[in-house]
Amino acid sequence: MSRLFGLFTHASMPVSPLLRLAGDRVSVSAIENRDGYGLGYAQGGEMLLQRRPQLRGQAIDLAKVAADIRSTAFLCHVRQAEVGGQKFENTQPFRFGSWIFAQTGTLPGGTALYDSIREQLPDSIARSIAGETDAELFFHLFLSRLHDEGVSPRHWAVDLPLVARALGHTVTAWRALGRVSQARSDAPIELALLLTNGQSFFAFTHGRPLWWAAVRSTPRDFVDLELSLESPSGEAVVGVPGAVVVIDGDEAPAGGFFRPLPPHTMLCVDRDLRVTWGPAAL
Fold this sequence. Notes:
single chain, Glutamine Phosphoribosylpyrophosphate, subunit 1, domain 1, 8-stranded antiparallel β-sheet, 7-stranded antiparallel β-sheet, 6 helices, 33% strand
């Protein structure tokens, strides 16, 4: 099973102690590391990538891999390929301008749908597609929805509700294009994704579980933001300095600190670590 981790902090800090909050999930066996891994993070005003498809088949400790990284925004993805070959261009996270993106789950469709989606994209966005995966296409379809809203994907400053709406519209558009292309549009869309531009952070769950925790001051100083399944939407403040940590997985990490993100929910975090959540607009 692929793995997905995301961190967003108020101030630049080492990411390894925060990754350790995921417990044994940061340890990936040689069998689990079937197709390599990738890291994406903000540093010095840029979004940097380290993608390592060539290191597949090796046991790795992700916290050790990230030991030298300090950042305010960080994504990590361990790939188990279902679409696209084992190569650098197909390894997540993906980057466009100030955005980095990673997802788990496979979207329904095939060659006809992928070709249809490419035709929908503005040339300025489509020409940055380098690989063959459904995840990269989904990311670029989202970027095109931002473009439709009049927002340049290369800008750092964005309106959080607008981004959340664009993500929801991306899922809807994928379904609609699947019906037109006669792809397997009846198959459910099951994905979990993380997205950041260094100034804001988004987590979206649609059929695959995500878990999140808020941390204040030190890696194990957890904050109870009272998010519950009975509360369909809300807002809370983590406090500063602090961090929000998100991971995927069928079960919660040990320790009882992580809580589930309700199904079909968007979690948004702004630069001041204000956390908002609510049903995705699909």
